Amino acid sequence: MFSASYILLPLLLVSYVSAHGFVHEISVEGGPTLTGAVPSDQRQKGNFAIRQIKSAFPNKGAKNPALNCGPGAFAASAVATIQPGAKLSFDWRAADLNAWPHDTGPSLTYLASCGNTPCNEFDSTKAKWFKIGQQGQKPNSNKWFQGDLMKGAKATATIPSNIAPGNYLIRHEIIALHLAIDKGGAEFYPACAQVKIGGSGTGTPSADELVSFPGAYSDTDPGIFLPDNSQFSKGNYKFPGPAIAKLAASNGNAGAPADTTTKASGTSGSAKPTSTKSANSVGATKACKLRKSKTTKAAREAAAAPTAEVYPRHMSRVMRRLAFDGLDAGAHQVSA
């Protein structure tokens, strides 16, 4: 006869595969929704402003090159034009486009100037990032805002209202901490988008507010390695990385995810975007528009090169033991 663990193995593996994800869409308040390409080893054609990643699996280790813009991230072809003070909403999905599967850990948002280079030609490994927002535990609670993403809510951040105009990369990430009781157990999910910010602001970060990825985090940072359960208690969590840059500190960037009527429902966990406008459409408002920059073939090919290597995919020790030990046991209990 078959063991119970042998019968449950497919369910365990399906759960493992779906428990990873990526930024599916970025909605700009008053503007269109930027839709990202589904993770793939092959660069997908399309007028995307979100950099495509090769894999939706988690990235482990603070020194992993994938912490830059995601595993094997390709530069996107398009650049979205947005305005200072714009509110951004990030729609996180599992790899199969079902609901985001994790509920423990922060989300953090950074910007980096591309200088005079259009961001679809910019090498993100050379970026110097400054933090503009972060969301962690709810006030007076040990519950995380990330848990709301499982119900269809979106993580949010606001572009600083006084930021100097120019070419910028947006780097938004979730750090899942459900395995962070072990050193190196934290799961990093970074994503990058290419924008051109308008306006006439003068705000810039100071040199001591700038960091690199990888390099901004350590595997032993209090917000990444949490061996003591008390670190999950309300009010005790310490965000990793630099403090929010002064030019963004007054923008309410430490608040809750956006309320949304697009809840993930049923077993599919699907959600409709809050806007019918897409990064793949030409129609865009004055507040935010998407344009495909004119670049040389050499520049496009250089920018299309992956910016990070893909690390091997690992199961947690618990999952590996349940799945493979169960399989071995089941195999030995099959009747002749």
Automatic annotation (TrEMBL):
Auxiliary Activity family 9 catalytic domain: from which residue to which, for each copy? 20-226
Gene Ontology biological-process entries: cellulose catabolic process
Record-level Gene Ontology MF annotations:
metal ion binding; monooxygenase activity
Which cofactors is this protein said to need? Cu(2+)
Q: Which UniProt keywords apply?
A: Carbohydrate metabolism, Cellulose degradation, Copper, Disulfide bond, Metal-binding, Monooxygenase, Oxidoreductase, Polysaccharide degradation, Signal
Question: Which InterPro entries does the entry mention?
Answer: AA9, AA9_LPMO
Q: Which domain of life is it from?
A: Eukaryota
Record field: compositional bias (Polar residues): 273-283
E.C. number(s) listed in UniProt: 1.14.99.56
Supply the Gene3D superfamilies for this chain: 2.70.50.70
Can you state which reaction this protein catalyses?
[(1->4)-beta-D-glucosyl]n+m + reduced acceptor + O2 = 4-dehydro-beta-D-glucosyl-[(1->4)-beta-D-glucosyl]n-1 + [(1->4)-beta-D-glucosyl]m + acceptor + H2O
Leader peptide range in chain numbering:
1-19
Residue spans with biased composition (Low complexity)?
260-272
Report any Pfam family annotated for this entry. AA9
User: Where in this protein does the record put region Disordered?
Assistant: 250-300
Biased segments, Basic residues type = 288-297
Q: What family is this protein classified in?
A: Belongs to the polysaccharide monooxygenase AA9 family.
Q: Which PANTHER family does its entry note?
A: ENDOGLUCANASE IV, PUTATIVE (AFU_ORTHOLOGUE AFUA_1G12560)-RELATED
Name by which UniProt lists this protein: lytic cellulose monooxygenase (C4-dehydrogenating)
Q: What is the scientific name of the source organism? A: Ephemerocybe angulata
